[in-house]
Write a structure and sequence with these properties.
The chain has 518 residues and is mainly beta. It has 6 helices and 34 strands. The chain has helices at 73-76, 131-134, 189-192, 247-250, 418-421, 476-479; strands at residues 10-11, 24-25, 34-40, 48-56, 65-70, 79-83, 95-98, 109-114, 123-128, 137-141, 153-156, 164-172, 181-186, 195-199, 211-214, 222-230, 239-244, 253-257, 269-272, 283-288, 297-302, 311-315, 327-329, 338-346, 355-360, 368-372, 384-387, 396-401, 410-415, 424-430, 454-459, 468-473, 482-486, 498-501. Strand 25 and strand 26 (368-372) form a beta hairpin. The longest helix has 4 residues, at 73-76. It is globular and about 75 Å long.
């Protein structure tokens, strides 16, 4: 008989053993469960995760993909990494996009772009706001069955200091021609008045802006944040939102522009911050339809640098919209970084309402993301939160689409200063069980054994038709080490069925364990 084993190694120090060994859980135990997968930066100072976004389905395999930027890579030349989704998604990048020269900060802003050329594959957009003395550059890459890393459309700012690409986003289809469009901010233009440029997609998309949105006055940094707003007025055209965090001495202002067959550059709705130095418009995002009225909504944050904490404001559809927020979210905690990033994250619990997230990058000294479920009557209480490890967790937050095609939306977050600024990106997937309580806990024999340092599927070692698994405890008995095999079955319990032991002190037996096909 040929017995099959499957190789899987996971290093961890937590004692509970869960049903899936390739994910970690790090949430509020009183709320629904979310599984976590992470992706690591390569080098110190890469600041991987400064930006992250869902990418759509760039390779056409039916799974949504993600993109993350590492603007500090190779003396700030910068990189962006694309990871293909799948049932067994791994953390090895499938496409690596490279900046051109040092100090370009390529990848400081990244986003899915929709399908800008109408070929059926999703595309991505990457900004390099520091390119050529801060002139700035934007790169659009077309997806494909075999996607490459050569930009298909390149847009360059007009002069040094323009910082084109400091922010980038998909724009939906603002002119209704069937092609995805994109938007890019250039905060440095005209003494930091700032501008944002919308580029229409097309079968032969070019690098000439089709709509130019203008800031109102010097030093307001218009375009510091830009986003697709969905369709806020229900006319069938996508709309956009842009922030000007420096307006009126830092009070801030945000603007919503309605799409149309002949879209203009006059804001249809504008909202002005009322708190001095609060930087209202620091981050802006569409949320989708969070309250089920069939109109898309938007979220805007304030993030005052002196207080270190801010607020997030949700505005329902423009047909009912005035400049009064429908929801005001905050933690009332100074220096927790609330409002550093806001984003719609799709419908992560598949209840028919879109959900959204707000990060607090200094909360608990490691960062926290607050998740709010949409409903017929949304409130200001977070329904769930995820805790970071370190490194300004939540600097970037974005919807990720549905990377494993399970019917639940996923989301992505970055911690760019994790591990000497190597950075780490986290992908969160809703747990279908709706519970983060393990079905069984397996315990080590004594303190400092490091039971659970390594775990693996072991295949079916006893040939009874049930999968088994193995757990290592390499520090058992003065580092002699042990490994424990547990047989699966209807009467599965937490008593090891086979115990394997190292031969001598400091053998580290059980440091790594794995099944092996033989």
């Amino acid at each position: 008989m040929k017995t099959h084993y499957y190789i899987l190694i996971l290093l961890l120090f937590a004692l509970p053993v869960y049903s899936q060994f390739n994910t970690q859980r790090n949430i509020d135990p009183e709320t629904d469960a979310i599984s976590q997968q992470y992706f690591n930066g390569l080098n110190p100072s890469d600041v991987y995760g400064t930006s992250s976004s869902g990418a759509g389905d760039v390779n056409g395999d039916g799974y949504d993909d993600i993109i993350a930027g590492a603007s500090g890579y190779n003396i700030n030349q910068g990189r962006a990494y694309i990871y293909y989704g799948g049932i067994n998604m791994n953390n090895v990048p499938d496409v690596i996009l490279n900046g051109e020269t040092a100090n370009n900060n390529f990848g400081k802003s990244v986003s899915g772009a929709g399908d800008v050329n109408g070929d059926g594959y999703s595309d991505v957009i990457v900004g390099a706001g520091s390119y050529s003395g801060g002139t700035g550059r934007v790169y659009i890459y077309f997806g494909g069955a075999v996607m490459n890393n050569v930009a298909d459309v390149v847009v360059t700012g007009g002069a040094a200091g323009d910082t084109l690409g400091i922010s980038v986003s998909k724009a939906g289809d603002v002119n209704g021609d069937g092609y995805g469009d994109v938007i890019a901010g250039a905060t440095g233009m005209i003494s930091n008045t700032g501008k944002a440029f919308i580029y229409y997609g097309g079968a032969a998309m070019n690098n000439i802006s089709d709509v130019t949105l203008n800031g109102e006055a010097a030093k307001i940094f218009f375009g510091s944040s830009v986003s697709d707003a969905g369709d806020v007025n229900g006319d069938g055209y996508s709309d956009v939102v842009a922030g000007a965090k420096g307006f009126s001495g830092g009070s801030g202002k945000s603007y919503i522009y309605l799409g149309g067959a002949a879209m203009d550059n006059i804001a249809d709705v504008s909202v002005t911050g009322v708190i001095a130095n609060a930087n209202f418009g620091y981050c802006v995002s569409g949320t989708g339809d969070i309250n089920g009225d069939n109109f898309d909504d938007v979220i805007i944050s304030s993030f005052p640098p002196l207080l270190g904490t801010g607020k997030a404001y949700v505005y329902y559809a423009v047909v009912l919209m005035n400049n009064i927020a429908d929801l005001i979210l905050n933690t009332n905690t100074t220096f927790d970084g609330f409002g550093a990033a806001v984003s719609g994250i799709g419908d992560i619990n598949a209840d028919g309402f879109k959900d959204f997230a707000v990060s607090a990058i200094y909360n608990s000294s490691s960062g926290k993301i607050f998740i709010y479920y949409g409903s017929a009557n949304p409130d200001t209480t977070a329904d769930q939160f995820v805790l970071g490890e370190s490194g300004n967790f939540g600097t970037s937050v974005s919807e990720a689409g549905d990377v494993n095609d399970d019917g639940y939306a996923d989301f992505i977050a970055g911690a760019p200063y994790y591990n000497s600024s190597r950075g780490r990106v986290y992908l969160y997937k809703y747990n279908l069980t709706g519970s983060d309580v393990p079905d069984m806990r397996l315990l080590g024999e004594a303190n400092d054994n490091y039971f659970g340092y390594s775990v693996s599927d072991a295949g079916d070692v006893n040939g009874d038709g049930y999968p088994d698994f193995i757990v290592g405890a390499y520090r058992y008995s003065s580092f002699k080490g042990r490994a424990y095999i547990y047989f699966g079955g209807p009467a599965f319990d937490n008593v090891a069925d086979v115990t394997l032991q190292g031969e001598a002190v400091t053998n580290y037996f059980g440091h790594d364990v794995s099944g092996a096909e033989m």
